[in-house]
Amino acid sequence: MGKRAAPPQQDPESQFGALRASLLFCPKCRQATPAQERLLLVLPTGNLHEYFCAQCGTTTGSRTDNDQNDAPIIVP
Fold this sequence. Notes:
By secondary structure, the protein is mainly beta. The chain has a domain at 22-65. Helices cover 5% and strands 42% of the residues. It is built from one helix and four strands. It has a four-stranded antiparallel sheet, with no helix packed on it. The chain is flat, with a radius of gyration of 18 Å. The N and C termini lie far apart (66 Å).
C-alpha cells in the first residue's frame, strides 16, 4: 500500500484570520443570542465592525479587520 501525503500545514493565524462570531452573550437578554454584524467605520488601520444582538439590537462586541483590499470607496 502506498503512503498518503500529509496535507500541507497552514499558518495557525491564517486559519482563524476571518473568524466571525455567530452567538454572543447579550447583557440585556442575559443569554447567548445570534449575533449580527455591520460595518461601523472605515479606518486607515482597518475596518471596524460591530456585533449586535439579533433579538434586541444591543451592541455585544466589535472587531477590526486589517484587510484593506475590499474597503469601500465613497465619493461625495
